[in-house]
Amino acid sequence: MDLDTFVLEHRDDWDRLDELSRRSRLTGAEADELVDLYQRVGTHVAAVKGSRSDAALEARLSALLVRSRSVIAGTSTPAIQTIARFITVSFPAAVWRVRWWWLVVFLLCVGLWALLTLRVMNVPGLAESLLPAEAVKDLVEYDFEMYYKENPAAEFALLILLNNALVCANCMITGITVLPTVALLYRTVENVAVICAYMILAGRADVFWGLLLPHGLLELTIVFLSAAAGLRMAWAWIAPGTRTRGRALASEGRTLGTIAIGAAGWLGISALVEGFVTPSVLPAWARLTIGSLVLLAFLVYVVWFGRRAAAMGETGDLAVGERSAEAPTEAAL
């Protein structure tokens, strides 16, 4: 492409689009002209980008299109409305969409937990072979309980939030490959099951459940949800249905992002419970009540808003107009 000829041929269009996009008011004819020029200049950007002849010109035209698009689309949605929509529509719709995957992961993990706990408790010599007797004594009499109490509440809550966020992120990111997520879930469940078995054998089951469940009810629920969302990515690749695999992965990836953002907020709530409620001087029944109410609030929230959003056709994906990679004009950019 002869760049000089191209610029001379289309410069008037660019200047006119620039002029119209800077005006505070437009007549009907000018608005139509703006839309026409916007579409025309979009093809110019695609041509320049395809030739890779002038990065500066490409950047200038791209910026011109962005400004013009803001005029065509009008004012943006206020941030508070965007946040409210995410909380009441996008996130619960995304969670509702993966509810069966979530339920299956939950049942499998809880079942595995029970089996491993019973195995450690009932297989002769197994408990003794996993840890030395002195280490087991320290664990059941001191280490498990002090884990929740040895650090200041605020610092402990932040540490827990970061750790849980890392676990959930790993479940989501590696879900498409299946095995790493399955291995991570197994290691997590195995670790909890072994500690559970030792605490029960030592006659300290009340301490174990009283410290684990207040925060663990919500925390493990979010971990299972993250794994379910990640594994659904794998299914989108394996069985994309009527969509191409690329479009299926793109759609599930955007929904996964919605779940990741929303899950972070609920992990924060779980971390606050673990940091301030679990190690508190409250009796076990009070801590368990708080943990149960927090989990119940999450489940009611997801069911109430998720079902309503699903009935409106929401899936947790971006709105059609926001999926820039699927829009021909945007793809050219």
Task: Map the helices and strands.
Elements: H1 3-21, H2 28-51, H3 55-73, H4 79-97, H5 99-122, H6 126-130, H7 133-147, H8 153-174, H9 179-201, H10 205-238, H11 245-277, H12 284-311, H13 328-332
Helix pairs in contact: 1-2, 1-3, 2-3, 4-11, 4-12, 5-9, 5-10, 8-9, 8-10, 8-11, 9-10, 10-11, 10-12, 11-12
Organism: Candidatus Avipropionibacterium avicola
Pfam families: SpoIIM
Keywords: Membrane, Transmembrane, Transmembrane helix
Description:
It is a single chain. With 333 residues, the protein is mostly helical. The protein is 81% helix and 0% strand. The chain contains 13 helices and no strands. It has helices at 3-21, 28-51, 55-73, 79-97, 99-122, 126-130, 133-147, 153-174, 179-201, 205-238, 245-277, 284-311, 328-332. Helix 4 crosses helix 12 (284-311) and helix 11 (245-277) runs antiparallel to helix 12. Mean pLDDT is 87; it is low at 327-333.
Q: How would you sum up the major sheet? A: none
Order of helices and strands: HHHHHHHHHHHHH
Mean of the pLDDT scores? 87
Residue share in helices?
over 70%
Strand fraction: under 5%
Radius of gyration: 27 Å
Structural class: mainly alpha
By DSSP (H or I, 4+ residues per run), the number of helices equals 13
The span between the termini is: 18 Å
| Total number of beta strands | 0
Unreliable spans are 327-333
What spatial form do the alpha-carbon principal axes imply?
Answer: elongated
